[in-house]
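User: I'm putting together a teaching handout on how multi-component assemblies are represented. Below are the sequence lines for each component of a complex, exactly as they appear in our records. Could you produce the 3D structure of the whole assembly as structure tokens, so the students can see both representations side by side? Please keep the chain order the same as the input.
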Amino acid sequence: MSLEVSGKSYETDEEGYLAELSQWKPELAEAMASADGAELGEFHWEVINFLREYYEEYQIAPAVRVLTKAIGKKLGKDKGNSKYLYELFPYGPAKQACKYAGLPKPTGCV
Amino acid sequence: METAEGVVKKFCYMNRKAPYGTIYALESLEVVLIAAAFDQDISLVFADDGVYQLTKDQDTDGIGMKNFSKTYSALGDYDINKIYVEKESLEERGLSVDDLQALTYEDEDDDWAEKNSLFVVGREELTALIDEQDVVLSF
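Assistant: Of course. Below is the structure of the complete assembly, with chains in the same order as your input.
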């Protein structure tokens, strides 16, 4: 599969995750979101940027339980809960946000 | 031990191979991260060449593999905080605990205090530790 953005083609896997992490840029996240019928606001970006930093530091996409805890610690308790994160990313915060962030599917997600 | 969620078993993951060259180390780490979701009592053991998996400042540029050694420091986030390294294996390879990366976790029940999760243990102590496990998975 591939993703077309501004006349350029980006390779993805069969579920739409970007094949080459280094090709990621914010426009790709916007394009993936609009394909899902979503629009990214400030709060989505907080989570997407957090995930990219987490990956940079640990070389993995965190499981949703770990993400929730870490977001709570970094961005405050009102954001570190599944309700908040599922409202932002209804397809699952780890899965959907990781996809927009250009990361592989979180280890342990089926 | 029975809890409302079910039986909690003691799982021990044995890591005995060098980090690169075979897929064992990375596979073990991935299995550990997945299994962490099931709230079991997990210990990790690093012995023989497995102690190299935890050495600090790894650089994989020359071999074209992902440097997954950074992922070990995420284990604390996954509530895995019993990581044992065999003392004799270190000594036989001219290594000491100073050659290993520091591994810590934040204790939720103690105001998120950062605590050590890496323990160097002797062969005899390790034998006893493995003996009390319900499940031992060898990589």
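A couple of points students might notice: The CA atoms of residues 5 and 28 of chain A lie 7 Å apart. Chain A has a mean pLDDT of 89.
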